[in-house]
Amino acid sequence: MLLAVDGDISREKSFWQNDIVRNLFWFSLTLNAVSWGVLFFFVSMTRDRIILHYNVYLGVDIIGAPYLVYWVPAVGLLFWTVNLFLAQYLYVKQERIISYALLLASVMLEFGTIIAAISLASVNY
């Protein structure tokens, strides 16, 4: 699709020039950084073992090394990266809505990582 701007014909915005893409990118990246920060601030690395999973029905069911809590935001960051590359690929292939959906899914995934990080921090604080 061509757009006329001041008499010039220019192409559509690129992936990184799109406002929706940039907003979703920075929002999800900020959410991931918050989940890292929550875990870094509230989980003590001085203890030998910490609670990694708490089940309402059975109580504590997974205990492990403190560094294992960082798997939650790390996996969130991995999925965020994969979604970002897929969104960029689909955006170039003119599949804008699917690209936006992937970026929005990344935001929702990062909300999930924040909930998990807060849960881990509250159980171990």
List keywords for this structure.
single chain; 125 residues; alpha+beta; two-stranded antiparallel ribbon; 14% strand
What would you say this structure looks like, in words?
60% of the residues lie in helices and 14% in strands. It contains 3 helices and 4 strands; from the N terminus they run E-E-H-E-E-H-H. A two-stranded antiparallel sheet has the order 1-2. The chain has a two-stranded antiparallel sheet with strand order 3-4. The protein is elongated.
Task: Give the topology.
Layout: E1 3-5, E2 8-10, H1 19-42, E3 50-55, E4 59-64, H2 71-92, H3 96-124
Antiparallel strand pairs: 1-2, 3-4
Helix pairs in contact: 1-2, 1-3, 2-3
Which overall shape is indicated by the principal axes computed on the Cα atoms?
elongated
The major pleated sheet works out as: 2 strands, antiparallel
Model regions low in confidence, pLDDT < 50 over at least 5 residues: none
Helix content bin: 55-70%
Mean pLDDT rating: 88
SSE order, one letter for each helix or strand = EEHEEHH
As laid out across the biggest beta sheet, the strand order is 1-2
Based on CA atoms alone, the radius of gyration comes out at: 20 Å
Instruction: Tell me the β content.
Output: 5-15%
Provide a count of the helices.
3
The tally of domains stands at: 1
Distance between the termini: 54 Å
What does this entry show, briefly?
With 125 residues, the protein is of the alpha+beta class.
